[in-house]
Amino acid sequence: MSCVWLIQPRDPLIFRDGKPFNATPGAQAKSLPFPYPSTLAGAIRTREGMAKNGHFDSQQIERLLQLNVRGPVLAALDKAGEVEAWLFPAPADCLVIQAGEDAKQGKRLWVRPVELPVGTMTDLERLSVVSPHPAVKQKSHKAAPHFWQWETLQTWLKHPSNDTDAVNLADIGMAGLTSESRMHVRIDAETGTADEGFLFQTNGLEFSSAPQDSNRKALSQLRQYALAVATDATFARGIDFLGGERRVVQWRPSDKSLPTCPPEIRKAIITQKHCRLVLATPALFAQGFLPEWVCQQIPELTVKIVAAAVGRYQAVSGWDVKENMQKASRRLAPAGSVYFLSLEGDARAIERFIDAVWMQSVSDDAQDRRDGFGLALLGAWDGEIEPLEVKK
After folding, report:
1. CA angle, residues 41, 46, 48, in degrees to nearest 5
2. Hey, which residues does 283 pair with through a beta bridge?
3. DSSP 183
4. Rounded to whole angstroms, how far apart are CA atoms 134 and 154?
5. Which of 137, 190, 292, 387 has the greatest count of CB atoms below 10 A from its CB?
6. pLDDT tens-digit readout, 139-185
7. What is the residue-wise DSSP string for 214-262?
8. Distances (CA, A) of 325 to 33, 48, 313, 317, 318
9. d(Cα 34, Cα 197) in Å, to the nearest integer?
10. Looking at the whole model, is its pTM more than 0.85?
């Protein structure tokens, strides 16, 4: 049975971005904006595989690799330390532009499949181009939220549309976790003084933030965040290390479960026989940015990818404990990527598709799915593709 675990940091966490970090004076260890699923999968399996003597039992590696991990998902905590709100990556089918002079406000535009004028050529082969309708010249808002609150995202999944009036960006979500930099020196054990030339910097993620227009000196007003993962592992709660520099975190189970599929979205998908698939965590696909497994898992259902809104790829590697060697670098379809799907089949087959995809991993390889890559959400789409309209 899957249980949701909360990982609440005591210190800023460092999830290395893969750039060299060595003894060179002035070296910097920078963190990714958010951890990859494999980082949490490795931490969970390490805790699960610890023997009573405190050492990792390498004889359990095959069993540990079969453990399923779904996440991580960012969770905002209440005063009691329980989940108050879920936050998910901003969907790529939404373009946030600035509205007026107020930089704290913006307008959301739905990026959807469009039909290009006759004679237009692209390299997308069978896929449609996606664009706001009508097209606009503005670039994305510099302060556009990178994480959306679940209530806001749920509304977007049900009824995506262009905003007629400006909205406060803070009402949509948050820009991301705050970065914190620290300077370090190496201390000579004999003299107790700093070793010359051994000065370096680390950049970590703060899992707390101050509400807007609040007294930032009041620690009681800071909003706390945690990483949430669902797993069938059975380790005990407690204190452990996570990420670079062995930063301290607390592991504890939560009474909350990950969001379920809203009935309105389920009904719309069955009725319209079209949907949007949104990645809540980065995914690994054999064909680069295009999924295969999710289109083939229900034999009675024909799933066709009509269009895709995908951000710039990310790269992931790591260390293979089983083979005792580094993993090959692979390209990820980033979290927030959106796929517009056409579904051909009866209602029962579509129901099975929804149950198999919602808050489940949809990467092509089975081990990548167990590692949490490609956690998915679904949204409504009527399947309409209108001619591209350019706003004059």
Report:
1. 95
2. 333
3. E
4. 24
5. 292
6. 899 999 999 999 999 999 999 999 889 899 999 999 888 888 787 77
7. S-TT-GGGPEEEEEEEEE---PPPEEEEETGGGEEEEEEE-S--PPPPP
8. 26, 21, 24, 11, 9
9. 31
10. yes
